[in-house]
User: What shape does this take?
Amino acid sequence: MNAQILNALLSYIDEHQLKDGDTLPAERKLAEELSVSRRELRLVLASLEASGRVWRGVGRGTYLGARPTKFEPSLRGLRARTSPADIAEMRLLFEPALAALAATKATGDDLQELEKCARKNAAAKNDDEWQQWDHRFHLLISQATRNPALIALMEVINGMRVKPDLREKTVAQDTRQFFAQQHQAIVNALKARDADAAARCVREHLLSVQGYSSAKPNEKAVREI
Assistant: This one.
């Protein structure tokens, strides 16, 4: 391990008052901050991960501290027994609380990513595009909590939502636009650091989705889980 880069990284962590459970910036940005190459930074991070001082998840970034207990084994049976109504009920209880916490802990980068995601949702031209950015939007809210356990649980929820037997397409463009406007309202509440408003906006969004899911089968717009 390059001791000079390690010391620079540890100084960065100390200066920014980061603690276990907090996430480090993306590799490109962190390498620029430390004035090192991404290859050199990866070597240091790999060494720290091997010693249990950081952990990295695919698509989730690098977190300080030891890797949290995995949720997958205990939730494997849950996936097999879950209905669309179960998922909707669970999300209604869980996600508003996530948004309230995210409002107090989200970084500027988190808010920028959420803003970008809301724009991508608004620009979605078909169900595939919508689903891609919708799932990312809700995951980003969980990531903004800086709580690895909550993030892992949201990943499980997203994983259940994409199961073919639990999901039907959202084909109506006007409905996608309405949901995208609700996403933007959530972002606005998060940017205002208003935990109550963020929770309320998420709850209203999920209730709208739940109502849409209950639409008659012969309606053109069918459900989004």
